[in-house]
Amino acid sequence: MTNPAAYPIGTPGSPWGEAEIALWRSRQARKRSYAADVLAAVERLRPRFDVVEYGRLDYAPDSYPLYALRSRGWRDGLPAMLVTGGVHGYETSGVHGALRFAEDHAADYAGRANLLVVPCVSPWGYERIHRWNPGAIDPNRSFREDSPAPESAALLRLVAPLRGRVRMHIDLHETTDSDETEFRPALAARDGKPFEPGTIPDGFYLVGDSENPQPEFQQAVIAAVAKVTHIAPADANGEIIGSPVAAPGVINYPLRALGLCAGITGAPYVTTTEVYPDSPRATPEQCNAAQVAAVRAAIDYALARAH
């Protein structure tokens, strides 16, 4: 077995400093438009939602307004359901799945639930198809007090008034081949650690909360998504991405301890979706549809148990 090639930035065994981060940042080019893909969709939805600008990211020379779509006619007596996408900007179906749910299905829950849909938490990463923000920080390991990631801090401020009132939070993600070819090697280089190759599961899976796993909830979402796309099997070790499989297509992480987005509300029902867009058995359309199916199933389950 040959050792993987060293990442082209930094010195093996030494964490990055400001010079390495600046070099990495200089190599990130804009590949798509947040304004065209996300802000334009938000504007189309403005007649049907209260559009909340909950922050702004100033990454000179760029500035990104952050928007959430809030149910019009929000009623405090209804259960709140939070949908987040684009915490990792490169995970495309998380962004477009959230927008599609808002456009095509949110009206089904009028008068039954308060919806808060945040389609793109990390617009700089969305445009550059990257996992990190300009400081080489992963927003999805940064949801904690005094967060180093402005993207994470802004979302925490948005949901703070809702803590204890959110019934369900679903965070929409993807696992991609580029995790293994780019993002995990970059992470190892950034932290001065050796890169240990892994495997990418072929199919959809969920990450629940090891502190509150809610297995029936997770399986309800898996069952809905299985009608749209295939579910990732366990590997030879009974694991998915190094974690034991708790049930078909489900693993669990300690969400709050890891600073993950799905841990920010304390909701009784939480999950993180992981779509696999690089599968030969899945199309971009299926990936978006899988995210929508997951959102609907999660809300439906939580509504059936609201009290």
Automatic annotation (TrEMBL):
Name the SUPFAM superfamilies for this protein: Zn-dependent exopeptidases
**Name of the protein this chain belongs to:** Succinylglutamate desuccinylase/aspartoacylase family protein
As one GO molecular function, the record gives: zinc ion binding
- Source species of the chain: Fulvimonas soli
Taking every annotated instance into account, which residue ranges of this chain make up the domain Peptidase M14?
30-307
Coiled-coil-forming residues are: none
Entry cofactors: Zn(2+)
Similarity annotation: Belongs to the peptidase M14 family.
Supply the PROSITE patterns for this chain: PEPTIDASE_M14
Q: Name one GO biological process term.
A: proteolysis
Question: What UniProt keywords are attached to this protein's entry?
Answer: Hydrolase, Metal-binding, Zinc
Q: Which InterPro entries match?
A: AstE_AspA_cat, Peptidase_M14
Kindly give the Pfam families that the UniProt entry links to this protein.
Answer: AstE_AspA_cat
This protein's source sits in the domain of life called Bacteria
